[in-house]
Amino acid sequence: MIKILGFILTIAGGIGLVMGVLGAFGSFNVGMSPWALIILGIVFFFAGIGLLKNRKDTDQT
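The structure assignment produced for this chain is given below.
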Protein backbone atom coordinates (compact mmCIF):
# COMPACT_ATOMS: atom_id res chain seq x y z
CA MET A 1 0.00 0.00 0.00
CA ILE A 2 2.84 2.39 0.80
CA LYS A 3 4.52 1.69 -2.54
CA ILE A 4 1.26 2.48 -4.35
CA LEU A 5 1.01 5.80 -2.49
CA GLY A 6 4.65 6.54 -3.30
CA PHE A 7 4.05 5.79 -6.97
CA ILE A 8 0.98 8.05 -7.06
CA LEU A 9 2.85 10.89 -5.34
CA THR A 10 5.78 10.52 -7.75
CA ILE A 11 3.50 10.66 -10.79
CA ALA A 12 1.55 13.64 -9.37
CA GLY A 13 4.81 15.44 -8.62
CA GLY A 14 6.11 14.84 -12.12
CA ILE A 15 2.89 16.16 -13.65
CA GLY A 16 3.02 19.21 -11.38
CA LEU A 17 6.64 19.87 -12.32
CA VAL A 18 5.94 19.63 -16.04
CA MET A 19 2.88 21.87 -15.83
CA GLY A 20 4.72 24.39 -13.67
CA VAL A 21 7.77 24.57 -15.91
CA LEU A 22 5.62 24.91 -19.03
CA GLY A 23 3.58 27.63 -17.31
CA ALA A 24 6.63 29.55 -16.11
CA PHE A 25 8.85 29.32 -19.19
CA GLY A 26 6.46 28.35 -21.98
CA SER A 27 3.06 29.32 -23.26
CA PHE A 28 1.02 26.87 -21.17
CA ASN A 29 -1.62 28.76 -19.16
CA VAL A 30 -2.73 27.19 -15.88
CA GLY A 31 -5.30 28.44 -13.38
CA MET A 32 -2.76 29.13 -10.63
CA SER A 33 0.75 30.46 -10.28
CA PRO A 34 3.24 28.29 -12.16
CA TRP A 35 5.80 28.74 -9.37
CA ALA A 36 3.36 27.23 -6.89
CA LEU A 37 2.97 24.24 -9.21
CA ILE A 38 6.75 23.87 -9.43
CA ILE A 39 7.12 23.93 -5.64
CA LEU A 40 4.25 21.48 -5.09
CA GLY A 41 5.62 19.24 -7.84
CA ILE A 42 9.04 19.15 -6.18
CA VAL A 43 7.52 18.36 -2.78
CA PHE A 44 5.26 15.59 -4.10
CA PHE A 45 7.98 14.13 -6.33
CA PHE A 46 10.57 13.85 -3.57
CA ALA A 47 7.99 12.60 -1.07
CA GLY A 48 7.02 9.84 -3.49
CA ILE A 49 10.62 8.91 -4.22
CA GLY A 50 11.35 8.83 -0.49
CA LEU A 51 8.42 6.49 0.12
CA LEU A 52 9.52 4.20 -2.69
CA LYS A 53 13.12 4.04 -1.49
CA ASN A 54 12.77 3.72 2.27
CA ARG A 55 9.56 1.85 2.99
CA LYS A 56 8.76 -1.81 2.73
CA ASP A 57 5.32 -2.73 1.47
CA THR A 58 3.06 -3.76 4.36
CA ASP A 59 0.85 -5.99 2.19
CA GLN A 60 3.55 -8.63 1.70
CA THR A 61 3.21 -11.95 3.50
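Interim note for the steering committee: The helical segments are 2-25, 34-54. The chain has one domain: 2-54.
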